[in-house]
Design a protein that fits this description.
19% strand, 605 residues, 43% helix, alpha/beta, globular, single chain
Length: 605
Amino acid sequence: MIETTLLNELYSDSFASLNDCFDKISSWLKDESIAHEDKEEVLLLIKNKNITELRDRFYRDLEFGTGGMRGVMGMGANRMNRYVLRRAVQGVANYILKCGEEAKKQGVAIAYDSRNNSRFFGHEAASVLAANGIHSYIYPTLQPTPCLSFAIRKLGCISGFCITASHNPPEYNGIKVYWDDGAQIIPPQDAEILKEVFSIQAFSDTKYMPFQEAQQKGLAHHISEDILTSYFETLKGLSLAPHVPKNVSIVYTPLHGTGKIPTLRALNSWGFENVFVVPEQAEPNGNFPTVKKPNPEESEALALAIKYATERKADYVFATDPDSDRLAIVSHEPVLAKGIMKHQAVGDYVILNGNQTGALLVNSILSNRKKTGKLNSNHKIVKTIVTSDLLEKICSEFGIEIFNTLTGFKWIAGLIRSWEEKNNGFEYLFGTEESFGFMPNNNVRDKDAIAAICQAAEMIAITKEKKQTLCENLFEIFKKHGAWQEDLISIDLYGEEGSLRINRMMKSMRESPMTEWAGTKVTKIYDYLDPKTQKEQNIAKSNVLKMLLEDGSKISMRPSGTEPKLKFYISVCSKNSNVEESYMNSINKINNLRKEIYIFVNKVK
């Protein structure tokens, strides 16, 4: 074969570089289930002797992380393509079949977002399931992640898939895998499913039935409008102040994702109609032409919406990512934006970080429930270990218990499931993490930006009736509990070498931990790979280090489970009689800690 000859020539020239992935490249080219045009993409790299790209595409199989499996689209074992997807789905199908006939009958719900190839990948997933005799229930049009989680629970499915790469750049796509409670898979399902996936030796070992044939045989079904209607009806039950005046002006951007239709439907049903959708970003577009990447955590992605808000003198900006599970809030704060919050400001608008939004929402929910007599001791709040401890202070004020989990809403959902299994009477009220994720509704067991937008709009309306802005409300919270400030440093490290460097930095911190940061002593280190820490914190094993400082500050570090990044989370608090002075002290602490972190990163090559 000409393919084998070309590969052998390249191998002889570049033995050391290709040694550990030669077999995978060779198998790809020999696999009869892989279409000729998809082999051509790899052959072109071989002809051009692009060793770096070939290694990156084949040095490993695309892995599952905290958000499922996602990667750059293209051909290769370490890329997101129909063959890698089929193998993942076949692994899930094998696991479902082992769960018994009843599990097989329950079927799998599928949703997909606006990314390139998402609809195609959704149909591919249904095709593999059908070939295994497993029913699928797929939305006929793109829908946000929360609607997938809701459908799993409403339809009584055994599992679910959401085709998305969340807020990653446009070249990415992926699949989130869910289980019967509507949450992403956690132990033991995740390890058992992975075992099934990697027991599949060749892509040709996956079963496949064309989607149209699956429909004709009654194995692939469209999810009805009734499910969506039920989801939006459920959202209305979250309202705590239905009669508050809705005179709030909002600019909203779905960042070319799934958000426009469900967000407008939800906000309108709550009585919020003064909503302007950024026209250039309103319609689904997997190329995300107006942003570098559709991440509402980054100010660059919000620039166009803030521009329109400035022109229209809008009170607030809302932004969601492509699968509408993350929410950013921007508040019109002409005084604070030019003063002590200018580090988070664009013009007269302050971009709230995820911790600030979470604190405001928790405070609002607990305050209004207490006021209306709808708060009881069984209500529980949940956050992740890298989320601000300000939430613990707020919950303590209201006598409400708060729980900590690992990063990712699958762990928050897993905690709820454990409560249900124990039948301990705990009532889930709200969950949040620092990365703009909020889970307001027990009927959806994942981040839900659509529900959170409704709660945020109502919170804003209540605040406006008191003639306050959100940031003014935030400083009231600071007066009670100290001036908290958090920051996130994400170090992008791509490819095989990036992965190795991330491992070196984690190893370096474990073996030679910092004894002080910016002149402040480290008093305690929690290593979540250590069974002692896991037992003490009642947390599952994870590659996370958390360092507590003498002044109450906290630094956490972990590799991202969904992106090629090493993340550092900084949280500090200052408290004295002058809240603005305290806040400036917190900002100064953050800046000093940032410098120290970058020194460490640059030292470990």
